[in-house]
Design brief:
- It contains 8 helices and 26 strands.
- With about 500 residues, it is of the alpha/beta class.
- It is elongated and about 120 Å long.
């Protein structure tokens, strides 16, 4: 049995030897599975991140195919071979900045549909051809600043429908087509950097037709633009609206007053250059956004009315979300079949600028419409005033007061009439002759007011109320006549003193 087992072990070895004798080394590589590549000597591999930056590489070495981020910047790469990214199925970020690339070529980015960020900055690229970027269907950020670009083909960015940030600053571009952005769609584009180029002319109508969110991220500063009245009014309006590109680089927006570089002035600081620009030059540059006011909880419908029927309509929300049928991700906004936008219940998050993007073969260029939606909270309704309840309450209170007046009249002088807690009500006696004195009587007194006071007898009685003298502030003073009998009145002489001169004018004798 031992011999049999050893024989079975020798059989595979003999077969392998025979195969090795009949096949070459290259043939063995095809039969046996390839061994995985190790990390190159001059590179740093950390999980799915691979960095080979700053080693003077003139060609791309063999790299592990597991890399998701590849950094080949700060080397001496002059050319890339077609299909070289095919093994990197997981690659989403590629950095090739600070090399010596002077041309890209067709097929360089084949099988790179998963790439999201491509950095080609600080190279020596001169021309960007139509098919140089084929294969980058999922690209979102493209960095081409600090090259030597002098020309872009009209379809240089054709197919980059998901691109959101394009950096072309610090190049030598003398013109740029804003009507179709060299084949680049404006649906997702948020940043377009054209600063520090040689742009001597731009299409004013093309600038005015750009969507609001792209105007906010369009950088045109540090270019030899002419001091054109229409361009000045357009940029001035953007500056007043507070667009980021104008607000952050206002001092670097310059223009040439004459066709020499020495005549460069700042747009927003040398108003004398534009003092002869009439306001008529700004008419029709861009359509003002429609102002819409609504309240929380109401419904809203926006229509994208273009000059001619559009083949495709898309919307952009104030949160920069692309809205296509059926609508937003949270379901609060719907895009209907006719291209209109509908919000069933408006909330505060829906406030801002909605942009309609219309495209079609009959449109001269992509048309955009802007709607500035203001959302207000509904005012609280005042509480209903219940007049029936208040009327009933008023009637009850009035009835109670009447009953109190009828059955519980005030008891004046109860203490004199009934000493035992007003058990018997004290009704007033018949008016005496003294109480029937006319209210127009003058000051009557049997004793001059300035006479020395004498001891009053026990028969003193209150005769009448004396009107207030000067200095008493309207207070009354009781006048008393001695030995005066209420039941046997006598004639009283009217006082003819100075104090009575201001009385109401009673003359002669007054019977009291």
């Amino acid at each position: 049995m031992v011999v049999t087992a050893m024989a079975w072990l020798l059989v595979p070895g003999i077969v392998l030897c025979m195969l090795g004798a009949g096949l070459g080394a290259s043939d063995l590589e095809d039969v046996l599975p390839p061994a995985p590549h190790n990390c190159p000597n001059k590179c740093i591999c950390a999980a799915d991140v691979l960095s080979c930056a700053g080693h003077g590489l003139e060609d791309v070495p063999a790299l592990p195919a597991t890399a998701a981020e590849l950094d080949l910047s700060h080397n001496a790469l002059q050319r890339l071979h077609p299909g070289w990214l095919a093994p990197f199925s997981r690659l989403h970020a590629l950095r090739l900045g600070y090399n010596k690339l002077y041309v890209l070529g067709h097929g360089v980015f084949t099988n790179a549909s998963g790439l999201r960020t491509l950095d080609l900055s600080s190279n020596m690229l001169r021309i960007l051809h139509t098919h140089d970027l084929d294969g980058l269907w999922g690209l979102e950020r493209l960095l081409l600043f600090n090259n030597r670009l002098v020309h872009l083909d009209l379809d240089a960015f054709q197919g980059l429908s998901t691109l959101s940030h394009l950096y072309l600053g610090y190049n030598e571009l003398a013109s740029f087509s804003f009507n179709h952005l060299h084949g680049l769609g404006t649906t997702h584009l948020r940043t377009l950097d054209l600063s520090s180029n040689w742009l001597g002319h731009v299409s004013i109508s093309g600038l005015a037709a750009l969507p609001a969110f792209l105007k906010n991220g369009l950088y045109l500063h540090n270019n030899p633009l002419p001091c054109d009245c229409r361009l000045y009014h357009l940029l001035q309006r953007w500056h007043q609206r507070g667009l980021s590109a104008l607000r952050d680089f206002a001092r670097e927006y310059t223009c040439l007053a004459f066709k020499v570089s020495e005549s460069r002035v700042r747009f927003f600081e040398h108003s004398r250059v534009f003092e002869n620009c009439s306001a008529a030059a700004a008419l029709g540059l861009e359509l003002p956004e429609q102002q819409l006011d609504t309240q929380v909880g109401q419904s809203l419908r926006l229509y994208c009315n273009t000059s001619v029927p559009a083949a495709r309509v898309a919307w952009v929300s104030p949160k920069n979300e692309l809205l296509v049928p059926p609508g937003s991700q949270d379901g609060s906004i719907a895009v209907l079949a006719d291209g209109s936008l509908a919000i069933r219940r408006v909330q505060e998050q829906h406030a801002g600028i909605f942009v309609c993007l219309a495209t079609g073969p009959r449109l001269h260029h992509n048309q955009t419409l802007e709607f500035n939606v203001s959302v207000h909270k509904p005012r609280p309704e005042p509480e209903a005033f219940n007049t029936g309840f208040t009327t009933l309450l008023g009637c009850i209170v009035g009835l109670v007061l009447v009953l109190v007046y009828l059955f519980a009249p005030p008891c004046r002088g109860c203490c004199h009439c009934c000493r035992r807690a007003c058990r018997n009500r004290c009704w007033p006696r018949a008016p005496s002759p003294l109480q029937e004195l006319s209210a127009q009587s003058s000051v009557l007194s049997t004793t001059p007011p300035d006479a020395p006071s004498r001891k009053a007898s026990v028969h003193k009685h209150v005769v009448f109320l004396e009107p207030g003298k000067k200095g008493l502030n309207g207070r009354v003073q009781l006048a008393v006549a001695e030995d005066f009998d209420l039941y046997n009145p006598v004639e009283l002489q009217v006082k003819a003193g100075s104090e009575s001169a201001s009385s109401t004018g009673s003359e002669g004798l007054v019977m009291t």
